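=== Structure Prediction Worksheet ===
Name of assembly: unnamed complex
Input type: mixed (protein and possibly other molecules)
Chain count: three
Listed entries:
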Amino acid sequence: MSQSDPSSTPSADSKIRGGQFRKKGFTVFGLDLQDFIRFFFSGNASLAIVILVLICVFLAREALLFFPDHHQGLKAYRKSGQEFVDFVGDEVNDFTILYSNANVAYYAELNQTSLEQDNLLAAYRAVQSLVKNETSRVRDRLEDHLDDLEDVVDDLEEAEEDLAKLDPAVDGEKIAELKKEISELNAEKQQLEPVIAELRPELRKASETILNNSLTWKFDDASLKLSEEQREKFREAVLRDEPDAQGDHPYVAELKKISAGKKAAAAEQLVDFKATVTALRDAAKPLKSLHSKLKRVASEAKRESEKFDTAPGRRAALLEGAAKTSDPEEKARKIKMAEAVMIKEPDFATLTQPLYAAIPEHKAIAEKMRTEVAALVKQLPEKASTQGARERLKHARKAERTFDSTVSASLKKMDKWNHDKRYSVIGSVTAFIFGKDWVTNSSWHDFYGLLPLFTGSLMISIIALVVAVPFAVSAAIYVNQLAPVHEQNLVKPAIEFIEAIPSVVLGFFGIFVLGTMLRNVSQVEWLSWVPGFPMSERLTILNAGLLLAFMAVPTIFTLAEDALNNVPGAFSENSLALGASKLQTVLQVVFPTAMSGIIAAALLGFGRIIGETMVVLLVAGNKIKIPDFSEGLGVIAQPAHTMTGIIAQELGEVDNGSLHWRALFMVGMVLFFISLAVNYGAQKILIRFQKV
Amino acid sequence: MSSSKVLMPTEENISPPAPESSAVTSSHESSQEETEKVIKVNDLNFAYDGKKDVLRDISLEIQGGEVTAFIGPSGCGKSTLLRCFNRMNDLIPTASITKGSIEILGTDIYDQYVDEIELRKHVGMVFQKYNPFPKSIYENVAYGLRIQGIKDKATLDQSVEESLIGAGLWEEVKDRLDASGLGLSGGQQQRLCIARTIAVQPKIILMDEPCSALDPISTATVEDLITQLKSKFTIVIVTHNMQQATRVSDKTAFFYLGELIEYDSTTRLFGSPAVKQTEDYISGRFG
Amino acid sequence: MNEFSDNQILNKERPFAPQTQKRRQTDTAVSWVFRLATYGILACAAYIFGDIIVKGAPVVFRAEAPFINVEFFTRSPETLVVFETQDGTERQLAFSDYSQWKKDNPGVEIAKEHTHSYSGGGILGPLVGTALLTIICIVIALLIGQATAIFLNEYSSKGRFINVIRLAIMNLAGVPSVVFGLFGLGLFCLFFPVITTASELRVEGWRAIQLFGTEKYLAFQGWGTCMLAGGCTLAVMVLPVIITACEESLKAIPMGFREASLALGATKWQTIRTSVLPYAFPGMLTASVLGITRVAGETAPIMFTAALAHKDKLPWQGLAVNPESGFFGRMLSQVFGFFTESVQAMPYHIYTVAARIPQSEYTRPMQYGSVFVFMVLVMCLSALSVFLRIHYRKKMKW
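=== Predicted Assembly ===
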C-alpha cells in the first residue's frame, strides 16, 4: 500500500479511485501479499530481540530464584550457630597464617646453610623423575626381568639348599627331581641374563638421550653453576639409577650427608627460634579444641535444621508411595512412617545453648592467647639471613596484627550474636556479590561468594589486555601506516586469521606447551627479578592471560586498524606538508585522532576476553580462592578460577534446580550484564568518535 | 506481440498534439482536456524529511506526445519532481509530498488507492547512470515482461526484438543477445536500459539526465533515439545540458531553488525568456 | 662535535639536505619497534601452528600408502589398552580390539596391562557430531539471518523498531558463549515442547497439556541434551555474524538494480527475488562459511546442550522405533529420534583429552592427532571464507 500520505484525501466516489493504477490481486483485511512478505521478514528480524529477551528471562528465572534459596540457606547458617562458630574459625584461620609464616621462616633459615646441596638434590630428583618417566617403557621391562631373575635365583638357592640337605642314599628320586629343577632354573637364568644385559645399555642410552635433550636439566644446569667434575658426577648419579641399584650414588649420598650436617649445625644456632615457633603452636591449642567442640554442636543443629526443611517433602513422598502400593500392610506401614516424620521445628534455642555458654570460655581463651601470641611474636628474631625468611617474618608480624583485630572483632560479634536475628534479604545479595568464599558440596556450609571468581576473571582479563593492547595497536599502526602495500596485504589477513583458531586448541596448547615453557623460563636465574618468578605451577593466571592476549590481538587489531583507516587522509597530508616525518605524522596526528576508536577496540577486546571460557577452564588452574595480593605483582604466578570457568566446570555436575545450579545461573547473569555494559560503553565511545 | 498490439493504438492516439484524438483514455476519463495533459501537477510541495520542503508550489501540465525538459542548477529539485511522477521517492521512507497533488492520465497518483507498482508499469524511468542487470541482453529487456508474468517464449522474443529496434540497438546486438549486458559500451548500455523500459509499454518515460555519463557520440545517438521515441511515448527529461534541452525538447521548465520559475515552449524559453533568472541561467551567469 | 657543526654548516648551505642522521635513526628505530610487534604476533601464531603440526601430523599421515592413518578417521574414541605379552613385546590396542585379540589368542599370557581412557580408536564420532551440529546450526542461522538481513537492508525504514533490532543484534554479538550455553540449556534442553506419552512425562501443571482425544501430551520439558538443542544454541550464537555478513553482501549490490527493477513495475518482493538475491548469493556463501568457522570451534555452548565425552554409537545407529505406529509415525519418530540424539563433538573431545586424561606417550597421539585434524579443518574453512571474500570482491564489479 501507499506510504503515509498526507495529500490523499478520502473521497466518496471510491469506484474510480486509483483509476487505472488501482491495485490488482487479492487482499486480506486490507493486506496484500507484499505486506505478508514484509511481515515475514520483519518477524524474523524481531527474533533477535526475542532471543535477547529470552536469554534475560531464562537467566533471570533461575538466577532470581537463587536469592530466596540463598537467603534460606544463610538463615539456616545463622540459626544453627554455624555463623557463630565461624567467628572462632576466623581467629583460627588468621592464627594459622601467622603460624605457618613463622614456621616457614624458621625452615628457610634452617635450610639456608645447606641451600646449595638442597638445590642440587632437588634438581637431581626432578631430573631423575623426568628420566624415569620418559624411559618408563624400557625401565619397566628391565624391572620385570630383574624381578623374574631374582625369583629364579631365589628358587635356585632354595633348591640347592634342599639338595644339600638331602641324603643321596635315601631320597634318590627327590634328588633327581631337584636336579632337574635346578637345571631348568639355570636355563631360565641363562635366558634372562642376556636379555637383562641387553636392556641395561638400552636403558642407559635412552636415559642419556633424555638427559641431553631435557630442557629442565639444561635450565637447572645453567642455574646451578656446576663445575665440570660435579656435572659429570651428577649425570652419573642420574644414569646409574637402574631399577636394581642399591642405595644412593655416592655423590648423592655425600650431598645428603653434607646437607643433613649443615642443617643440624644450623638448628643449634636457631634453637630459640624453634622454641618460639613451638610455643606459638602450643598457644593455639585451647582455641583449636574449643573450635572443634563448637563445630560439632553447630553441625548437629544444622542437621536438625535440614531434617526439618526436608520433612514435608519426605512425608509427601511416603504418602505418595503409600497411595501407590496395593498391599494394605505395606500401605499402613508407610502411612505410619509418614506420620512419624517430624515436622515440628527444632528448638534452636536449646540447640545453640552450648554456644552461648561457650562465650565466656572463649573470651578467656582468646584473651590469654592474644597476649601470649603477641609476646611470642615479639620474640621472633628481628633479623634473618635470607630474603625469604625476612619476608615471611614480616608477613607473620602483619598476621599478628590481623589476628589481634580479628579476635577483638569476634569477641564483639559473639556478644551481640543471636541465632534468631533476622537475616536481611539485602544481606543475602551482598553475601553473593561480595562473598569471599565459593565453597560447594561441603559438609559444613555451602558458600556462594562471587568475589574469588570475579577477581580471577578480572585479573586474567587485565593481564591479557595489558599484553594484547600494545602489540595489537603497534601492529595496527605498522600495517595501516608504515608497511608497504604488499606487506599490508600479507600481514593483515595473517593476523585476522589468528581469530579463527578455536579457543579449545589454544587451551590445549596452554596445557601441553606454554605452561611447561613458562615454568622453565621462570626458573632461569637472570629472570628472577620478574614478579612471580620462579613459578611453581604450570597453570597460572599468567599462562591464561597470555593465551587470552593472543586471542584478543586480532579483535583489537582489526578494530584499531579500522579506526586508523577512518582518519581522514587530509590530516596526515597536512602534517606531511608542514614538514613532519611520516612517523611524527603517525604518532602525533593520526594516532591521537584515532584514539577513541582504539579505546573502543580495547574495550571490545576486554569484552571478548572476559567472556572466554575454554582457555581459562583449561589453563587458569581452577583454584577457587581470591589470589594472594600480598606478593604484589607476583600474584600472576598463582592459579585462579573464573566466572566462565566455574559455569562450564560445575553446571554439568549439579542437580537441575538446586541452589548450586541457580548460583551458576546467577554467575551467568553477572557475566551477561558485564558484557552488555562493555558493549554499551564501546558503542558510546564509537558513536562519539564518528561525530568527530 | 499481442500485448504491444493492444496498447499501441493508445499511444498513437495520444501522440498527436491535437486535442480531440484520444480514444482509449477517454473511455476511462470523462474530460478530453485531461487526456491531453498527461501529467498535471497541482500546487505541489515536497519534503524529504517531512518538514523542509525541497519543492514549493509547483504547478505544471505536461502534454502527451511531447518531450518536456526540466532544467536548472544542481539541487533545484528537478530530479525530485521527476521521481515524484513514478513515486520512486517512496523508497525514501520519510519523504512525502506535503501539499498539492499529481495527476497522471487523470488519476491522482498519491491517492491511497493507487498502487505504485501498477503506476510504475505505466510510467517508466531511465536513470542517470546506466544500470543494466548483470544478465544477458535478452534477459535484461525481457525482465520487465517476466515480472509481469509473461512466460510465452514467442511473445517475449517478439517484444524483445521490437524494443531493441525501438531503442536502435537491434542491429548492433542481434547476434549476441545472450552476451552479458555489462559487456556493451556505455551508450549501448544506456540504450539497452531504454529498450528495457519501453519493453513494458509505458505511456510515459522519465529520463533522469540520461546522457550525463556518456561521451558526445553516444549522447548524440541517445538524443536521436529520444526524438524518435517521441512519436510513441510522452517523455520527460531532466538535463543539465541546455543545448540538449534545445535539441530534444518541445517544452522546457526551468527550476530554481525548488520553485518552478518558467515553463514554456523550448524555442520561446530559450529565445525570449520572460523571467530574469531564466535569462541569467541560460546565458550562463550562474549555475 | 666537529662533525656535527660541519653538518650544520652543510645544512645552511643546502637547505634541502636530508634530515640529520640522528632523527632518521630514531624514525627507523621506532618503525622497527612497530614492525617487531607485528611480526612477534605472527611468530607466536607460527609457533603454535608449528608445534601442533610437528606433533600432530605424524599421527595422521603414514609413510606408505594410503598415506593417511585410516583407522584414525574411521573409528570412534575408545579406551586404549597397553599390554605386554610374555615375550616382552608391547602392544597397544583399542578396547574392543583387545577383547577380540584375547579371544583369538587364548593361550597367550599377558604380563602387564594398563589402560588410558579416550586414547584409542579414532575420531570418527566427534567428527560426525561436529559436522551434524554445524549443519543444523548453519541451516537455522542462515534462514533466520538471511531473512533478517533482507528486512534490515531492503524493507526497514529508520525508526525506533529498527534501532531496537540493531541494538539487540549488536548486544547479542557480545554475549559470552558460555551464557549462550546456559540459555540453550534453559530453553532448548529443559523447556521447549515435545510430544510425549504419559510415562515419559517429567513436568506437570500448565507445562503438560494433554492433546485432545489422545494419550499423548504436549509437554514443555525440553528436548534434553541433543544435537538439535546444540545446533539451535549455536545458531542463536552465530546469528549476529551471519546477519552482518549477509547484510554486507546485500549492501554491495548497487542501488541501480533495485531502482531499475522497481521502475519497470516490479513489486518489492519481485525486485528482491530477481534483482537482489541472485547477486547476493556469493556473499551468502561467504557468510555461511564464516559462520561454520565460528561455530565449529565453539565448545562452551555445546558442553551442556549437545555433547558427550563418550558415546559408542553414531547418532543414526540404534534409533528406537515403535513398530505399532504407521509408516509416517515411524518416519517421524525416527527423524525426531535422530535429532534428539546426543553426539560427540571435536572441540569437546579435545577438551576431554586435554583436561581429563594425563599426558603420557600413549595418550599423546590421540591428543595431538585430534587437535591437528581439528585445527586443520577449521583453518581450511577460515581460509576458504577469506578466499571467497577476496575472490568475489574482485569479481563483483558493476
